[in-house]
Design brief:
Layout lengths: L23 H11 L2 E5 L14 E6 L5 E6 L3 H8 L5 E10 L8 E13 L5 H7 L8 E15 L2 E3 L4 H6 L9 H11 L1 H13 L3 H4 L7 E10 L2 E8 L13 E8 L10 H11 L3
Antiparallel strand pairs: 1-2, 1-4, 2-3, 3-6, 4-5, 5-6, 6-7, 8-9, 9-10
């Protein structure tokens, strides 16, 4: 019998590959919870009796994968659902996520959800405070959207049919609530480090064909997204007026820089960012 140390390791004993990107379900969960704006619509019903966008709402995922939708109590959307009594109301949600730093092509993500609205049982002030701690319960009501379809399109790509079972057990990105302040701080206080990231990005082989023009044409490097896996920056160059011109915004290229280890809580971010920038100097 061969010695134990000479036997090949069982597959179960081998470390799992390190994930470097969120799943589609995690991305959808993050966007729906932290989007810049979310609108709700009931197809075939004029909710506002005038031209314009449908009502703005907030939403949060419930343990069973449905969405809790926070609406203003006097809103037409709440009245429509309340008057339907026990019947479900077909509805749509669209969440839009905008970069908190001024950059060209600022919309980062969209999520679309189709489902059926009802009043959320036990959706009183205490439940509102639990699900939406930053929104006062006064003047608000809770609806429940049972999901039938969920899709997301963001900086990671497009997923048109997210598995609803995976969505039910997914978690939002742990630093999404702090991302806006962190990106704004990076943009305002660390331009030199961002410039280093831009130079490192243009030194990559994959950037030689993606960036049309000399390195000297790089005008600005802006932080555009931050998650538990790493930082995404946007390289902005001056337009040249040639066929490679990207329009009034100039030439654009996004580059990602991964942390050594995924961040699990916001308190781990300073060390992760320090290691990322320290690695640029070697």
């Amino acid at each position: 019998m061969p010695h134990a140390e000479n036997r090949p390791a069982r597959v179960a004993d081998r470390p799992a590959p390190r994930r470097t990107a969120p799943t589609a379900a995690e991305r959808a969960r993050t966007i729906l919870q932290f989007a810049s704006s979310v609108v709700a619509d009931v197809p075939g019903i004029d909710l506002v009796n005038r031209p314009g966008i449908p009502p703005l709402v907030s939403c949060a995922a419930l343990p069973d994968g449905a969405l809790a939708v926070l609406v203003e109590s006097p809103s037409p959307l709440h009245r429509v659902v309340a008057l339907s009594r026990e019947e479900e109301v077909p509805a749509e949600l669209e969440a839009v996520d905008v970069a908190p730093v001024a950059v060209p092509q600022r919309i980062r993500a969209r999520a679309h959800a189709h489902g059926r609205l009802t009043l959320l049982p036990a959706g009183g002030p205490d439940r509102i405070e639990q699900l939406f701690p930053h929104r006062g319960p006064a003047g608000h009501a809770l609806l429940r959207l049972e999901l039938d379809h969920l899709a997301v399109e963001d900086l990671w790509g497009a997923d048109c049919c997210i598995d609803l079972g995976a969505f039910a057990v997914a978690a939002p990105d742990p630093i999404a609530g702090d991302e806006a302040c962190l990106l704004q701080h990076l943009a305002a206080a660390h331009p030199d480090q961002l410039a280093l990231l831009g130079a490192r990005a243009l030194a990559r082989r994959t950037a030689r064909h993606a960036w049309p023009g000399p390195v000297g044409a790089l005008r600005e490097v802006a932080p555009v997204a931050l998650d538990r896996f790493g930082l995404r920056v946007r390289l902005i160059g001056d337009p040249q007026g040639g066929p490679e011109d990207t329009g009034p915004s100039g030439r654009l290229l996004d580059a990602r820089f991964e942390f050594e280890h995924p961040v699990t809580v916001p308190d781990e971010l300073p060390e992760a960012m320090h290691r990322l920038f320290a690695g640029l100097r070697h």
